[in-house]
Design a protein that fits this description.
Blueprint lengths: L2 E4 L7 E2 L2 E2 L3 E5 L10 E2 L22 E4 L7 E2 L2 E2 L3 E5 L10 E2 L7
Parallel strand pairs: 1-9, 4-6
Antiparallel strand pairs: 2-3, 4-5, 7-8, 9-10
């Protein structure tokens, strides 16, 4: 289970750079670069809406990864020690990315 840092301040699940979800999903099955990935779990924060999750935000999160060519992807699970999700001003999941993605060598 990787340590997750979320830099997507516009996501309803972001709580001081941590995620309040038990697990997130990284999309981008044919990604060759981090920009071709995205956080499929992203939900835009609008006005005063907040996540209705009762879970505390945690630095650890299960990460389902669909980026087949990422060196950290093993059987659709992320095995990086730490990951960072980027997309500070995102309004849609496609505007986010797994900044830790590294193409398999």
């Amino acid at each position: 289970m990787p340590e997750l840092k979320c830099n997507v301040h516009t996501c309803v699940h972001n709580k001081n750079y941590l995620c309040d979800l038990d697990a997130i999903e990284v999309a981008g099955s044919s990604a060759q670069t981090s920009r071709e990935t995205s956080c499929a779990s992203f939900v835009e924060k609008k006005g005063d809406n907040y996540s209705n999750s009762m879970r505390e935000a945690s630095p650890m999160s299960n990460v389902t990864c669909h980026a087949r060519e990422c060196q950290y992807n093993r059987d659709c699970n992320c095995h990086a020690g730490k990951i960072s999700v980027g997309g500070n001003n995102a309004c849609r999941s496609e505007e986010t990315e797994c900044a830790t993605f590294e193409k398999e060598k």
